[in-house]
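Hi U.,

Before I forget, here's the chain from the pilot set. I'm dumping it here mostly so it's searchable later in email.
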Amino acid sequence: MSSSGSVTDVDPVILPAIPPVHLSSGKVAPLQVTDRLRRGSQIVGRFETSGLAGFKVSAQGRSLRVQVSLSADERSVSGWHEGRVEPLGPVPRFLQVRSQGRLRQCVLLRGRRAHARVAFDLTPEEIPDDGLICVEVLDITEGDGISEEVREAVSGRIASDGVAGVRLDKVVFEEPPPVDFDPDTLDGSRCELYSLISAGGLANVNRQGARVLRSGMFVVNPVLKDRFGSSGDITLRLGTRAEAVSMIPATWKRVNSELRWLRHATRKLLQSAAPPVERVLSVRDGSLGEPAQSVQGNVTELVVPSPSTAPLLVMLGPCPDCVPTLESGTQSV
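Structure:
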């Protein structure tokens, strides 16, 4: 056996991932570091609680685009890795995704079939010589650099230990394309697919149209350079939708649902069904002051600045007999 410094003939040679590369297994050599992440074979892994994954990537002095896919399922509960089952209620998980020590985007995951996408670019200066790129997923209540106003605003409205059992499905590393083409307006579902907003995650990535906001709040994220929502102000059109008449055979439930539908229909006829926006907060800096909103018929138009350094949290007021929706987002430059 011969050696050169601290490296010997029996030391494994770690081959970095060479972009473009899609990593969808935890059994690959570029996954060098894990903290509270159980590696998977058909997914990168599942978090025990807030944790990270570190990948060795051959950036060669270039910028890199990182895309992260997260999801929740029936095993996404506290203590899943110890055989415990603590059912999660209907409240959402509020998660922050960091890389290289910086907050990149936030996601809300609600329900057992929620999928969320996170996308951000790393500059050459953010990638160390050893090529180690870390992706951290933390509960919004943890870590530094998060406004206490935000934490107080969501207290009691989000799941505790929100990262527990969340799946890290895939991580993609690639060079940013020279130019991105985007429309001026996206419907609510496309806004979430683009990662501009996060309102609970998409169960169906092919869904189009309005996005129901059952959590009563949503996140507006910093997005990729030159993509939709990356510059200027964003006008978000918010509406309401009556809950569907319940199919449960219990008569009182059907009657109650029908009454809610009728009350909402009446409010729409009177043009008083627009949802109110109570607060807009920077996840890092807190309140942005009085929300810039206007009501036109049954639609609330909310204008927010394109977030550049931290996500924005939009808190909605009560919507009697209905649920709020995000109808569309329009970018002004």
